[in-house]
Amino acid sequence: MKDFFIADAPEFENAVVTSYFVLSSLQIRERRQGGGQFLSVTLIDKTGSMPAVMWDDFSDSIAACSEGCYVKVQGQINRYQNKFQMSLQRLRFAAESEIDPADYLPVTQFNVDEMWEELRGYVSRFANTDLQRLVFAFLDDPEIAAAYRNAPAAKLLHHAWIGGLLEHVVTLVRVCVTIAPFYPEVDPDLLVTGAILHDVGKIRELYWKSSFGYTLEGQLIGHINIAQGMLVEKVRELQPFPEELRILVQHMILSHHGKYEFGSPKLPMTPEALLLNVLDDLEAKMQTLRNAFANAKIQGKGSDEVTDWVRSMERPLFNSQNYLKKEQE
Amino acid sequence: MKDFFIADAPEFENAVVTSYFVLSSLQIRERRQGGGQFLSVTLIDKTGSMPAVMWDDFSDSIAACSEGCYVKVQGQINRYQNKFQMSLQRLRFAAESEIDPADYLPVTQFNVDEMWEELRGYVSRFANTDLQRLVFAFLDDPEIAAAYRNAPAAKLLHHAWIGGLLEHVVTLVRVCVTIAPFYPEVDPDLLVTGAILHDVGKIRELYWKSSFGYTLEGQLIGHINIAQGMLVEKVRELQPFPEELRILVQHMILSHHGKYEFGSPKLPMTPEALLLNVLDDLEAKMQTLRNAFANAKIQGKGSDEVTDWVRSMERPLFNSQNYLKKEQE
Amino acid sequence: MKDFFIADAPEFENAVVTSYFVLSSLQIRERRQGGGQFLSVTLIDKTGSMPAVMWDDFSDSIAACSEGCYVKVQGQINRYQNKFQMSLQRLRFAAESEIDPADYLPVTQFNVDEMWEELRGYVSRFANTDLQRLVFAFLDDPEIAAAYRNAPAAKLLHHAWIGGLLEHVVTLVRVCVTIAPFYPEVDPDLLVTGAILHDVGKIRELYWKSSFGYTLEGQLIGHINIAQGMLVEKVRELQPFPEELRILVQHMILSHHGKYEFGSPKLPMTPEALLLNVLDDLEAKMQTLRNAFANAKIQGKGSDEVTDWVRSMERPLFNSQNYLKKEQE
Amino acid sequence: MKDFFIADAPEFENAVVTSYFVLSSLQIRERRQGGGQFLSVTLIDKTGSMPAVMWDDFSDSIAACSEGCYVKVQGQINRYQNKFQMSLQRLRFAAESEIDPADYLPVTQFNVDEMWEELRGYVSRFANTDLQRLVFAFLDDPEIAAAYRNAPAAKLLHHAWIGGLLEHVVTLVRVCVTIAPFYPEVDPDLLVTGAILHDVGKIRELYWKSSFGYTLEGQLIGHINIAQGMLVEKVRELQPFPEELRILVQHMILSHHGKYEFGSPKLPMTPEALLLNVLDDLEAKMQTLRNAFANAKIQGKGSDEVTDWVRSMERPLFNSQNYLKKEQE
Amino acid sequence: MKDFFIADAPEFENAVVTSYFVLSSLQIRERRQGGGQFLSVTLIDKTGSMPAVMWDDFSDSIAACSEGCYVKVQGQINRYQNKFQMSLQRLRFAAESEIDPADYLPVTQFNVDEMWEELRGYVSRFANTDLQRLVFAFLDDPEIAAAYRNAPAAKLLHHAWIGGLLEHVVTLVRVCVTIAPFYPEVDPDLLVTGAILHDVGKIRELYWKSSFGYTLEGQLIGHINIAQGMLVEKVRELQPFPEELRILVQHMILSHHGKYEFGSPKLPMTPEALLLNVLDDLEAKMQTLRNAFANAKIQGKGSDEVTDWVRSMERPLFNSQNYLKKEQE
Amino acid sequence: MKDFFIADAPEFENAVVTSYFVLSSLQIRERRQGGGQFLSVTLIDKTGSMPAVMWDDFSDSIAACSEGCYVKVQGQINRYQNKFQMSLQRLRFAAESEIDPADYLPVTQFNVDEMWEELRGYVSRFANTDLQRLVFAFLDDPEIAAAYRNAPAAKLLHHAWIGGLLEHVVTLVRVCVTIAPFYPEVDPDLLVTGAILHDVGKIRELYWKSSFGYTLEGQLIGHINIAQGMLVEKVRELQPFPEELRILVQHMILSHHGKYEFGSPKLPMTPEALLLNVLDDLEAKMQTLRNAFANAKIQGKGSDEVTDWVRSMERPLFNSQNYLKKEQE
Q1: Which residues of chain F lie closer than 8 angstroms to A68, CB-CB?
Q2: B with F: touching (≥3 Cβ pairs within 8 Å)
Q3: What is the mean pLDDT of the segment spanning E30-39?
Q4: Is the CB of D35 inside 8 Å of chain A's CB atoms?
Q5: Considering the entire predicted model, what is its pTM?
Q6: What is the structure's pLDDT at A7?
Q7: Which CATH number fits domain B6-102: 1.10.3720.10, 2.40.50.140, 1.10.760.10, 3.30.470.30?
Q8: Which end of chain A has less neighbouring CB within 10 Å, N or C?
């Protein structure tokens, strides 16, 4: 049980605490003036990160540890140059049985059960029963469901937190069902099917145990192609299943990144594939804006200053609402 | 008064008709076997085009004519290889006073007054009175209003018809007001202002008298920059006007094509500019799909065939709804 | 039974022949001087194409025909401007039961059975029995085998003939087994597995009945992704199958085009994937050279002239051997 | 009054001086071994920059200061590792009334009044009186003139100093008037008008108070589009003004960067626009060469060595004159 | 001796003339209604081109002819649809001994001897005697001089006429010597050396006998690399020659196209190479403008219309002088 | 004579050694707490690099030294944080006469004489005696031979060691002679000639005295163009020599990088040029893989982890053999 979190540090200044963390970096360093070695580590949990040092007798402590493992530590919280750090008295490897992973990784701020039910609700209202069978074959598969409810949507950047994939998909589906009626060329059930399945390959592309990263399959195959393989398998289980629907759903998955250089082996050719690509991309960009604006706030930028250069968009961004509010004050 | 239209030809087979047209091409050609010259022209009105020939005494007839001018003709409607053509007895230059231009150019199928009122309705509900003043300064300018209600949205391609600009904008604004609530970073009044003004420069970029084309200012300056100049002038007339709003609206106009290579000198940096660019681009692409699907139908393509290669999108397209319908029959 | 082929025309000048063809184009045209209509068609078989006309009473003849169907015709062979054409007396739709498709499409000049045995021979010598099981699962699948032995490798361009896929693969495998020993990083069995399976999706991407073309699945999914789905299914049938081999083979299929813009969603990351991409690309380029040189010969170009511009390679090419031979004479 | 400049340090080694500077960086740092905090700042004026430290009682000193503000300091000049630094005894915020901004920013080495007169001289010799009226409407506008005479031409890189814009323009105009006679397609008055007005938007794109940077309008609108708005306003004031000249001048402004990706929404289409783009670009590149050569000299590079990689030109550069001179010695 | 030129046709309407031409196309065609074959050719000389037909007995006439050869013909000049053509009575192959090539290819309108002396004049005023020796080694080489004075500068496009290379170089050198003083980094002798030698490889890249085209060496090696080889050979003949000058001149030749994709294997790194590239490119672009303006005039375009799309510049162009003149009338 | 190498340090811990090194960096630094200055250098030889410090009296020692020069030092080997360093007692400039350069630069692990003989062997078996004469004219030129046997193939990256050029060429030629028979369009002697000469310009592009780097000629001209010049000179010496072979060999040299942006002024147009480009590129990529795999091993990466991002290939790589081996254990 973890009852001290890094965000609690201000209330524990100078106190000695005992808790569990992920060891996100580990270095043995030389003390000044030939004073021997000491241990310098970084501890993280879902609320943030904190540096820590251990001055003596740390060899046995770290014997079983490596970067990314869980540790149990005891130490005193100090403030140094207005930042908190910990002086460790004890540190040891912690088994997964002692751990609730949810304590260590950032988590969606929304209710996973509610989002899950919302998602199932859209599917239960499908007019097209074949697509309904198909999507429920994914959502009712216990292994897929467990992963889908927990997976982040990315290693870094947008929705990089537990439940991020589900959060991203639910948000996207809401926009899909709202905007579809404006385009009579678009079959709404097909569009929503695409929205729910387009990123399902991320449950095998990413891992989210103690930290986020890419699996080997993620690196060599990628989530688009993993999802495609999952679709082929599900369709085979559902036989008979209309071949034309299989092709149209597969096309949406393959083309949802919209450009060859983003890893889509096909460009969107159907109205649904095109709309899915545009709305998925819009979600990602809006999330990029939010991150950049939050960052600018942390940096103390003025309301009339642009954000730092945003590499993925090749430009800085600008928080217009904030600017208008400030000017009107 | 024009009372015969090209689309009426089947009802007039072998009859002699008298009517007005635009002369869209004009050639003097040699008859076979040294039989002298004859006149070969193409006549157009808003319902289509028809070839016509005049065998004798055409020199005086065409003295005042050139491609793009209006003509009055008398001739007989014949069918040749299942297509209609006209054997001309008389042809003369027609003055603009004899002409209602609306008869010669394709026109939106929607009611311009209704669209205009719908647009004004959105503005009248703005919470931001400065933006309201600004947009009404455009819409209430008689010269701008007259042009805005008539202009096409393009020379060819999407919305290339009288009223096409207004039709494009109203459709876009509808999607804007529906989708804005999903993105709290977006100021809806600012977004709608951008949607109404982004293409206003087209009223000087294009001409739409007897046919559609680019003005010299359209070629050398372009609608993005024309719109910008119009904004600068309107803002000057409205002084005092908040500088920050001027900058944000100007930024939306400048960046609405989304990429440098599409003629935008700035990339979208604000949430409103970004959303405007995405939705404007989506409208254009959906219109491209519609055109390609209509074309495929005309070509008699099967429901399981892709369209011809669409150059602007570097791919063929596929009408999924049509395909599903056919497969279910 | 087809006993007259288009290439036989010189021996039949002025004779009346009866035979079967594919109707590759069909037009009804006007005779000069108002003389009524006539039928103008193009007939093809595996040896070439020939224009034909039918002057009278063709309406019933063509009632059941459309472009791409088989027809039985009777007519006279004439020479006109040094080219042969046929004056048709009779023409009718031909059922597939009357037809041996091999007569109508170009066919590899190599022996399919021998190539097939050569291919199986490489696999039977694999040291890695899992890869052996995998490849044989494809080659021993009667449906796949039948298609694999007949499929062309492309609609146009390189190896666009019956048996072209097999011919391309066998040629590629030969180079693979020869060059692999120079690169100790490369596992030869894995490389050959990739070479045999990389294009297997073409058996569903293309159709080759009476003519060559893309299936809808070929257009919307593509052979890379079709092959991937086939692999997923075969691996499921072979369980237990080493996951690591599945990933490495799938990666080779996904990346064999070598660049995103060529439709590969992953770039080659393993030695085998890299080498497969390079050698597959080399095969295609050498075939392009051969075609360009053959074309230049037909055009009567001199030995010191470059070929026409080759669009896929963005340059003209030059037959150096031919040039050296000529210079030495 | 500032009577000690950073470049004077060698003459004041170990002396105590009192002077004003811009505070270009400010950090509070920890002394070694827990010895408390000290203040570490960087001071700049137009002659360079110098680090400074203040060991005690600095809290009040810096209360009103932030990076970019002016300060008055008293301290001792020391040499440390062959570089000068200052040990501060006193530091306080300085009001703008105490300051002559010209002391703090680098300034053109040429005489601004002379350059200004030279520029006006070219205009006064225009044959085209409309263009003359137009350019003088800018140069005689007191607000524009004041800014134009002071503005830098860039934040960093070429002509990043007070008066840099004017210096750049005068140099460019000299080349324009010399080269125009070689190209009879070019109207020299139009060309010089473009040269004088092309960058006038920089007076609002940049700010140059205590340091150089981009304004918000500079970021969201950009100098090309600002200049365009200024032109629209001036032309309106000058009515009647020939529309054709307005369009041609506006086109030159819009297209002077020569490529879409450099922020020009139009490519140069007229002889004047093309020549302006080429000569403006040549000026920038020659300035880049000069900077790179000066840098190489500072780094002590040999006369047969290329400069460091110049990112904007994607290559290193080479000082050929220097090389030839050295080789001949 | 050729005493009738194609441009003389109006004065010879209906007359029978005898003259020499280049046979630029040759076709045997069918007469209408089975009336047998006739010969259809195109005749060119330096003043233009004219179609011609020969109705009878042409087999022997063309036995020795092919496209590109010289012919002697006798025939009658007729006017047909306002264009001239010739009805041939006699036609035969013409030997080169009968021919003055200058009659058949377009020729510079400037005096070659004067241009040549002007060029030599610049060199004779070089301060750098090594560069002087080098350039004269080219200009005094009889074989090079003969070719240099005749070569066109291109197959099509800019300066595609006899003497075009010399004309291009002289024009370029004039601008070089005028502009060099503005850039003190530039060695004028080095710059002019580069201007004179940069395109010298064109004398082997192109052929200009009866028509213009690329040699095989031009296709496989290219004029940049041919020039480089010529430089290497000349430098070897001039030994001792300063190695540093050889490298700097060679660098200018290699880099004068300015971009890799234009066939320059090196980017300009020295001031002289950079300036040479800019001015050479400017010459080419101005020539492109001139051609486009001349073409627009021929097409009868209005003074307020842009030219056709110019592919090499990816834009239409606009003749501003013409526009201003018209507006002022 | 050098009898202590950096790789020997473990056996000499705490011992005092005397040896020669290249001084690859040199800095004078401040001791902590105002304790004066000390010398900090990096010493390298062919086995690696080691930091060293000299605390006192170093001014005279370094008087004649600069980065890149040879030095003789005496000092004690210490271990610090598990790395070795040297405390210097003496250091002085070393003349080249004291030095065997082979001790200081990494060297191929293969026998240079054997590789050289293998190369000559291929040439001696040429059927084409002209190509044989040409290649031997290079290999028998004592100056070229000496350089060719020693030159590295690059400054960094692939084959950056003494003898690397020869090693690269021999490896490439082996693949060439093996693969040529698969492509009957390819003349094997011409291909091997290209393989041997394509990089011969590197002997003047690079220098390899004490360290590797680019010569000025390498920077301004480049090895492709240097090789071309060498070919022109050799061909002139061999006259008479068939012009067609000269052109074909020159074309292979010019085009062997395969793309304009890689510095090839011509794209491969002949079968031999194409194959040379493909195989040369394959060699470079396989070497890149090897380096990346070796690096990953040093970093302690797991067998299921991809390598770091490889910039030249824009992807990470993956050692499939290693992965399969580990999984099978």
Answers
A1: none
A2: no
A3: 68
A4: no
A5: 0.87
A6: 85
A7: 2.40.50.140
A8: C
Question: Which of F204, F220, F246, F254 to mutate to probe the E interface, most E CBs <10 Å?
Answer: F220
Over residues D275-298, the pLDDT tens digits come to 999 999 999 999 999 989 988 887
Structure tokens at F287: 């070497």
Residue A227, min C-alpha distance to chain C (Å): 10
Chain B residues in contact with D224 (beta carbon < 8 A): 265
Query: How far is F65 from B180, CA to CA, in rounded Å?
Result: 69
pLDDT at position E37 is 77
Share of chain E above pLDDT 70, in %: 95
How many interchain CB pairs under 8 A, C with E?
A: 11
> Measured between CB atoms, does D315 come within 8 Å of chain E?
yes
Q: Compute the count of residue pairs across chains A and D with CB atoms less than 8 Å apart.
A: 12
Chains F and D contact (Cβ–Cβ under 8 Å for 3 or more pairs): yes
Q: Where are the domains of chain F?
A: 6-102, 112-287
Q: What's the distance, Cα to Cα, between the start and end of chain C in Å? A: 48
CA distances from D256 to A315, D202, D274, E282, F317 (A): 22, 14, 8, 15, 44
Which amino acid is located at C202 in the chain? K
The minimal CB distance from C220 to the residues A219, A262, A269 is found for: A269
How many CA atoms does the CB half-sphere of D311 hold within 13 Å? 1
Closest CA to B207 of B135, B105, B303, B285: B105
**How many beta-carbon pairs below 8 A join chains C and F?**
103
Query: CB contact, 8 Å: C67 with chain B?
Result: no
Residue E240, preceding peptide bond in cis (omega within 30° of 0): yes
Contact assignment for C216 to B316 by CB distance below 8 Å: no
Whether residues E247 and F222 touch (CB distance < 8 A) is answered with no
Which stretch of A58-62, A269-273, D81-85 has the lowest confidence by average pLDDT? Answer: D81-85
Maximum alpha-carbon separation in chain D: 76
Q: Is the dihedral of CA E154, E158, E164, E170 positive or negative?
A: negative
Residue type, F318: F
DSSP type of residue E155: S
pLDDT band at A39 (very low <50, low <70, confident <90, very high): confident
Most F CBs within 10 Å: which of C167, C173, C177, C182, as the mutation test of the F interface?
Answer: C182
Residues 81-120 of F with CB under 8 A from A: 81
Is the backbone of residue A81 left (phi > 0), alpha (psi -120 to 50) or beta? left
Q: What is the number of other CB atoms lying within 10 angstroms of the CB of residue D172?
A: 21
CATH architecture of A112-287: Orthogonal Bundle (1.10)
Give the residue from B32, B87, B306, B317 with the most C CB atoms within 10 Å of its CB, the best one to mutate: B306
How confident is residue C157, by pLDDT bands cut at 50, 70 and 90?
low
Q: Distance between CA E277 and CA E194 in Å, rounded? A: 10
**Residues with Cβ < 8 Å from F56, sequence gap 6 or more?**
F38
D254 SS3 class: helix
Average pLDDT, integer, range A53-62:
83
**E204, E205, E216, E221: best mutation site toward chain F, by most F Cβ within 10 Å?**
E221
Q: Which chains touch C (3 or more CB pairs under 8 A)?
A: A, B, E, F
Closest by CA to C159, choosing from C1, C315, C21, C280, is C280
Distance (Å, whole) CA C16 – CA C32: 26
Residues with Cβ within 8 Å of F238's Cβ and at least 6 positions away in sequence, in order, are: F133, F134, F137
Distance of alpha carbon E23 from the chain centroid = 19
b/e per residue, C209-233, with b = 16+ CB within 10 A?
ebebebbbbbbbbbbbbbbbbbbbe
Q: Supply the pLDDT for residue D157.
A: 65
Which residue from D minimizes the CA distance to B230? D232
How far is the CA of E308 from the CAs of B160, E154, E291, E315, in angstroms? 22, 22, 11, 8
